[in-house]
Amino acid sequence: RFSFPKQILRINQSRAGSTGFYARSHHRHTVVLSQVWSLKLEQEVEKNKALTEALQILASEQQELKESIRSSRRSSAPRTLTEEDFYDALSDSESELSVSDFLSIASQSFEEDEGRDSPLLCHPSALRAPSRMSGEGNHGNQPTQRTGDEKHRTCLPAPMFSRNDVSIWSILKKCIGMELSKIAMPVIFNEPLSFLQRLSEYMEHTHLIHRANTTTDSIERMKCVAAFAVSAVASQWERTGKPFNPLLGETFELIKEDLGFRWVSEQVSHHPPVSAFQAEGLKEDFVFHGSIYPKLKFWGKSIEAEPRGVITLELPKYNEAYTWTNPTCCVHNIIVGQLWIEQYGNVEVLNHKTGDRCNITFKPCGLFGKELHKVEGYILDKSKQKLCAIYGKWTECLYTIDAATFDAHKRTDKKSSEDRKTNKRNSVDEEPEEMPPPDAETVQVIPGSELIWKITPRPENSAKFYAFSTFAMQLNALEKSMEGVIPPTDSRLRPDIRALENGDIDVASAEKKRLEEKQRMARKHRSKSTEEWKTRWFHQGPNPHNKAQDWLYLKGYWDRNFTHLPDIY
């Protein structure tokens, strides 16, 4: 009979005991690690919450401290008052500025997942005349279909809601680390227009294009085109409502006989959001087209919209084409303080035939708000010689003058500014985004200057109706004569925009969510069936003048064959 030695049995027993010990130790170690990570996660959550609250408190205290210092300076330092000490009172719409407006500029991607509300530019011009529809080749004096009454509306069905009780920060602080395109804003921050409709406000100053066509001097034409490019962003001023982002396939048309143009636009892409448009002179005297894709950046206390896309104006009479891009738009004080907007950056308007160009600088506000809204630049020939200067404010007017006179004035003005700064060395430095700057209503006109553009004041009831101009008041009007004429994808037929215009914010919010879900489901269906979305009125391709990526009009819209259009509403 065979038996294991006692020594071997003891070794095996010892090994078995060790294995059990190691297993128990490993289990305890795993439990401890799990508890440690859970604790760390809780700590990070608490830390993030504390930092968020601290940031808001710090911004509030900093704002209060600056106001206190400015107040004490005013009360303890009596001196002779000058014209610079007086500024116009802020309007109601300025005091209610919301981050949503900014994206009127800009900002079409400032929404959650599908068909969000969007944003961009243009301003007041009380322009009145009947709108009409016509065929693709129907221009000039040929008969057209009337789509509206001769008397246009001068107000909206209901005034806007107050946004004073809604905190932008309460929304944004929950979105730290998220893409801006994923942030959904409440419908109360919208204005009752689609981004496609907002884009059409470019055409409010079409008289500048017609003026360019009447002169045989290429430099005079450049002045008019440059003024048109500046006037196109004027609607940023005081426009607090964020336009609804167009749904994929949404369209908008507009015909203005008094201004001599017809316009068609389409939302050609949703991710990224891209809107394409084309306007034509009714006498075939110009073509204005482009595509807009705003890129958003969140800087903590401000949001910046960098415009992407090419804008092109063609004047067939002179075989000329001009191209440019819009300046950058920024909204300040999104956490605390009064929200305010500025445009800044360089814009180059290039004449591709002559080589002439107009380099325009939209000046940033600066420390004391002196440069707010100012624009200045030069028209140069193809050898980069200065031909004349342009200056003014994008919110008000634009002048032109001889380049040498302008340079001499700038040198004198710079010396005066340095003298004033010497007298202000004891004042407290202030960051521009924390101080709502003064908004002087006038431009210092240099003797010998020529006025080339001046903005038309908004109507008296503008503040009650989203700071709309008379032109904007008419964009969403839906007359009975339009039934069966405009396509079913037209922005005027969107139920969420219509509900907001009528003052029913609950219906507007519900319809907005319904449309977003409908678009989301349509996209999922296309992905499962390998079906690709096809645009109807525009196609992607190189710009014919600078070869940049662009969306070009396919023609055919004005033939009014609207069969097989998608059901997006």
From TrEMBL:
<keyword id="KW-0445">Lipid transport</keyword>
<feature type="compositionally biased region" description="Basic and acidic residues">
    <location>
        <begin position="410"/>
        <end position="421"/>
    </location>
</feature>
<dbReference type="GO" id="GO:0015485">
    <property type="term" value="F:cholesterol binding"/>
</dbReference>
<dbReference type="GO" id="GO:0005886">
    <property type="term" value="C:plasma membrane"/>
</dbReference>
<dbReference type="GO" id="GO:0006869">
    <property type="term" value="P:lipid transport"/>
</dbReference>
<dbReference type="InterPro" id="IPR018494">
    <property type="entry name" value="Oxysterol-bd_CS"/>
</dbReference>
<dbReference type="InterPro" id="IPR037239">
    <property type="entry name" value="OSBP_sf"/>
</dbReference>
<feature type="region of interest" description="Disordered">
    <location>
        <begin position="114"/>
        <end position="151"/>
    </location>
</feature>
<keyword id="KW-0175">Coiled coil</keyword>
<feature type="region of interest" description="Disordered">
    <location>
        <begin position="410"/>
        <end position="441"/>
    </location>
</feature>
<dbReference type="GO" id="GO:0005829">
    <property type="term" value="C:cytosol"/>
</dbReference>
<dbReference type="InterPro" id="IPR000648">
    <property type="entry name" value="Oxysterol-bd"/>
</dbReference>
<keyword id="KW-0446">Lipid-binding</keyword>
<protein>
    <recommendedName>
        <fullName>Oxysterol-binding protein</fullName>
    </recommendedName>
</protein>
<dbReference type="GO" id="GO:0097038">
    <property type="term" value="C:perinuclear endoplasmic reticulum"/>
</dbReference>
<keyword id="KW-0813">Transport</keyword>
<comment type="similarity">
    <text>Belongs to the OSBP family.</text>
</comment>
<feature type="coiled-coil region">
    <location>
        <begin position="41"/>
        <end position="68"/>
    </location>
</feature>
<dbReference type="Pfam" id="PF01237">
    <property type="entry name" value="Oxysterol_BP"/>
</dbReference>
